[in-house]
Amino acid sequence: MTYAGFLALFLLLPCALLLLLLRRRLWHRRYWLTSALLAAIVLIAMAPWDHAAVARGIWNWSPSQTWGLRLWLIPLEEYLFALLETLLTTLLLCALLPSGPRPHPQSAAAAPEPARQNLNRVKGA
Question: Do residues 37 and 86 lie in contact, with contact meaning Cβ atoms separated by under 8 Å?
């Protein structure tokens, strides 16, 4: 399997499915700004690390398994991998975390009071 085939099967396909399923929840600009910031952080951390490893001969990618386009000794597919795995992670978080309004901390602190009153009634106080 080529690197592009791996990306398509294990990252692009799940991302497309989640984008389709979550399309209404993803209209928020905050989601896309957060995802873009995380992707930038990933690329900034990944590129020097991969470049150093390739330059020192620690690892490499077979030219027959990649498109052959390289930027700073790193195949284009590796950059796509970093971007797509970041997108998949943020999509999974969006799918798994609850959506909707969260209770205000003050209202949450006041919530146990009725329960305390009911407990006092049960105890006969």
Answer: no
Residues 6 or more apart from 95 whose CB is under 8 A from it?
Answer: 18, 21, 22
Record the pTM. Answer: 0.77
Cross-strand bridge partners of residue 70:
75
CA angle (8, 10, 11) in 5-degree steps: 70
Burial 106-117 (b: 16+ CB within 10 A, else e): eeeeeeeeeeee
**What is the sign of the dihedral through the CA atoms of 107, 92, 45 and 33?**
negative
pLDDT per position as a tens digit, 51-103? 999 999 999 999 999 999 999 999 999 999 999 999 999 999 999 988 777 77
